[in-house]
Amino acid sequence: MKSQLLVIATTALLFTACSDSFLDRAPEGNYVDATFYTSDEALEAATAPLYNRAWFDYNQRSIVPIGSGRANDMYSPWNYPQFVTFQVTALDENLSGAWSGFYSVVTMANSVINAVEMQTQGSVSEAAKTKAIAEARLMRACAYFYMLRIWGPVILIEDNQKLVDNPVRPLNREEDVFQFIINDLNYAVDNLSEQSDKGRATSWAAKGILAKVYLARSGWNNGGTRDEGDLELARQYASDVCENSGLDLMTNYEDLFKYKNNNNQESLLAMQWVPLGEWYECNTLLSDLAFSTEVTGGVNCWSSYNGSIDMLQQYEVADTFRR
Length: 323
Prior knowledge:
Elements: H1 2-17, H2 20-23, H3 33-36, H4 40-47, H5 56-69, E1 74-75, H6 93-118, H7 126-151, H8 160-165, H9 174-191, H10 203-218, H11 228-244, H12 285-289, E2 306-307, H13 309-312
Antiparallel strand pairs: 1-2
């Protein structure tokens, strides 16, 4: 009889434990969307990956051949010479790495914006919400500015869920991509402060990038001429940064490349890699760039990159130190 009562009691307990309210409970001790965005510190943590992890696939390797390779600033007979010799195909791993990397930034930025707008609760301040959205929109603009200059027309994404629901999307026109970038950067200019924690974006960073965007757009598909309106905006933003930001050039050119000078007085916006951090958070690019472990603190490296003749000719012959 006692055993039957025990079975009945246990069965009743199981049915009670499996009720809807039990299944709907958030895991104790674990962060989920509904419990994470509850403080200003949580928003700081949510935007931090936009400064490193989101950019990893582009920074890991693609950045050098797509950037310096296409510009003929460097050459290597082993490390992707096709970017210098104009033999790149659509199947190139560096192109796919860059594409996925940039859209990692875009989709992560969209996630932050959506979370701030829809999921924040508790003691989160309005200032922290605005700052997080501005940082996300700044990074999204940077990613699209890279993509625009590499591919031209690209797919604009503001809502990740809409993309999941309908993944087949047309390319957007270049002029629309430019305007999207400018809109994001203007929001960042208006909503980021002039001073921030070391390594974090400021309104000066947004203005500096806006100057580059307007400079690029001024000669975009203009038949060799420049749009004077865009040139004037580029001049205004660049002048504002140079004259009013308080930033200045470092005295010694060599010091720019030393670890201890990360986020120095020349820096407007920079990736924030974690020294000896986990994969996706650490900077693996240095292994491709460095010629010796002596300059990486013992970290393995294997660079075969060399400065091109075109790059060397950018420096005055008498400037033997910089050259």
